[in-house]
Amino acid sequence: MKPRSSAAQPSLPGNFLRQAINQDLERGTYSTRRWGGSPGDARHHAGGAPDIARIRTRFPPEPNGYLHIGHAKSISVNFGLARAYQGVCHLRFDDTNPEKEDVEYVESIKDSVRWLGFDWEVGGTSHLYHASDYFDFMYRAAEYLIEAGLAYVDEQSAGQLRDHRGDFARPGVNSPFRDRSAAENLRRFRQMRDGELQEGAAILRAKIDMASPNINLRDPTLYRIKYAQHHSSGSRWCIYPMYAFAHPIEDALENITHSIATLEFEDQRPFYDWLLQHLAQGGLINTPPPRQYEFARLNLTYVVTSKRKLKQLVDEGHVGGWDDPRMPTIAGLRRRGYTPGALQLFADRIGVSKADSWIDYPVLEGALRDDLEPSSARAMVVLDPVRLVVTNWDEAMGPGHLEPCSAPVHPRDPERGERTFSFGRDLWVERADYSESPSPDFFRLSPGKLVRLKYGYVIQCTGAVKSGTGAVTEIHARLLPETKSGTAGAAAVKVKGTITWVGVADCVQAEVRLFDRLFTVPQPGAGERSFLEELNAASVKVVTAYGEPSLRQTLPEQRVQFERQGYFVADRHDHQPDRGELVFNRTTTLT
Ligand code: ATP
Ligand code: MG
Questions:
Q1: Cα of 270 from ligand 2 centre, angstroms
Q2: What residue spans in the chain does CATH classification 3.90.800.10 cover?
Q3: Which residue lies with its CA nearest to atom 13 of ligand 1?
Q4: pLDDT of 5 over the 50 cut
Q5: How confident is the model at residue 10 (pLDDT cuts 50, 70, 90)?
Q6: 353 lines ligand 1 (CB under 6 A)
Q7: Lowest mean pLDDT, pick from 87-91, 115-119, 485-489
Q8: For residue 305, which atom of ligand 1 is closest to its CA?
Q9: From ligand 1's centre to the CA of 205, what distance in Å?
Q10: Residue 6: helix, strand or coil by DSSP?
Q11: Cβ of 307 less than 6 Å from ligand 1
Q12: How far is residue 177's CA from residue 164's CA, in Å, rounded to a whole number?
């Protein structure tokens, strides 16, 4: 290999993918290819200009659900590589299955890709494609294979097909239909197309090798009969291509150079190459054809990444919807307060590997905190409030006096300014910050102890009022008047504990949704039990909290660190400050 200037190499995860791309660029593997301005066959592209995209990748979701964190990884790999190499990444809706395509899914997929910071529109051209637009070509490719003696119509029963396939230990058995003439196969295939056969009566198969150790090469199915309405082609077709046949063709028509798949598709690669090689030989597709590369799919502990299971959670009402903040969908993560930057950082940190593994959820949370810490404004909020009365306030400060206090919006970024709030006789503090009989390492409120109220004064706790059941209803304390934070006397009194608080007089009320993991086990559904039995019954707790007045200015989706509590986000939908409705979701705790 020629030496490369390291400066020219983008710093991206996924060494083996970058190596493959670097090698192709050095060798000029795809440098002479032309691009017809849109997807198409060999002739279409031959009539176009040299392809200015140095590489083409694609992200090909099936529009049958919302995208999840695993897709976010695939998006960052495919769109990220295209961006880094001055290439183009296509967004392709893989809609070859005649199922009801939901417009909601299509829109949510587009939203998610854009929200992550990527775009399929490059230089004024939208590279948004639909696999179903290629049905005509796929049919033509099938007829070509039949004529070339490379495909045949098989009319064995489902049971025979299964029995004759063999398994890892046994080779398959040739179908009695395998040696039909091309003319007979063509006639039968057209009858399939024309609706003259029942579902299951016949399939089109590639003619490769029933004894191949790779079961995917044992005459794989190319087309099946299915009497179904397709969302875009309607009832025009009653035969539909199998994924293994459709996908390589989609890549080829779109001039994809590097087709990046997950590891399950590794065994499909020989068929991918077989098919495209024959179609290229027949002059049907642009050359050289795309190549497939595989990387390990993302598995994240405590998280389910299967659209089918996620759909079940939604359909059965276990969560509030696809964008429930507990869902690992991109829409759910967004509503939970995750940022595109955090997801990118996570993708960069885990990299792209060739070996399946589970990533620990805290790795994602670590990336999240690292992204949120420098950007989030700060605020004090009391989530489980109990009243604290400063019993000497009136004599020390004057009856009804409210003392203005301030704190930086961000502790290391003075340019972001200050937030202000007031200290008075009545305050809210956290219930857990009081203990009547504290352990030796408890330095917060307990009778006789000195504590600093952050950005405010030092107080000395004198006791608490309790209800009949023994619950603390009010904490009492005395102010040490000369101890205000930021004044000369602040350091005069040494305290071991500092707590957060808000003033009863100027605080705002907010609904705060405290989320926890949706599942109780690291690998939901992996053992004997159904993943539904492993749902965390306490995955959300809603509390009425009191926060400092600056929260009134927060906009939906704004992220705030509640000091000592964690990172929170104003809910995209329910937070309506102009109507006085403040709603925050806990994104994650501080540690
Ligand atoms: P699911 O099983 O959740 O339905 P899928 O792979 O069937 O996932 P697609 O819509 O077909 O979903 O996926 C679109 C792209 O996203 C594919 O290229 C697929 O490889 C990739 N992808 C899906 N899940 C993951 C994952 N967990 N990690 C990495 N890539 C993924
Ligand atoms: Mg799929």
A1: 19
A2: 137-240
A3: 61
A4: no
A5: very low
A6: no
A7: 485-489
A8: 3
A9: 26
A10: helix
A11: yes
A12: 12
Closest ligand to Cα 58: 1
Question: What percentage of the chain reaches a pLDDT higher than 70?
Answer: 97
Burial of 77 (0-12, 13-18, 19+ CB in 10 A): buried
Give pLDDT tens digits for 222-231. 999 999 999 8
Pick from 545, 500, 551, 505: which is nearest to 397 by CA?
A: 505
Q: How far apart are CA 207 and CA 561, in angstroms?
A: 62
Instruction: Write out pLDDT tens, residues 388-405.
Output: 999 999 999 999 999 999
The residues annotated with a catalytic role in the active site are 62, 297, 307
Q: Which amino acid is at 568?
A: F
Q: Rounded distance, CA 59 to CA 250, Å? A: 12
State the Cα–Cα distance between residues 406 and 486, nearest whole angstrom.
9
Taking each helix axis as running N to C, give the angle between helix 340-350 and helix 361-372, from 0 to 180 degrees, rounded to the nearest 10.
130
Q: Which DSSP state fits 371?
A: H
Question: What is the predicted pLDDT for the residue at 103?
Answer: 86
For residue 57 and ligand 1, the question of a CB distance below 6 A is answered with no
Closest ligand by atom to 105 CA = 1
At 298, the amino acid letter reads: L
Task: Find the 370 Cα to ligand 2 centroid distance in Å.
Answer: 32
The mean per-residue pLDDT over the stretch 123-150 comes to 97
What average pLDDT does this structure show over 196-209? Answer: 98
List pLDDT tens digits, range 83-110: 999 999 999 999 998 876 788 999 999 9
Q: Is the pLDDT of residue 294 over 70?
A: yes
Q: To test ligand 1's pocket by mutation, which of 64, 71, 352, 531 has the most ligand atoms within 8 angstroms of CB?
A: 71
Class of domain 137-240: alpha beta
DSSP state for residue 496 in the 8-state scheme:
S
pLDDT reading at 13 higher than 70: no
Mention the CATH class of domain 377-588: mainly beta
Q: Is 574 helix (H, G, I), strand (E, B) or coil?
A: coil
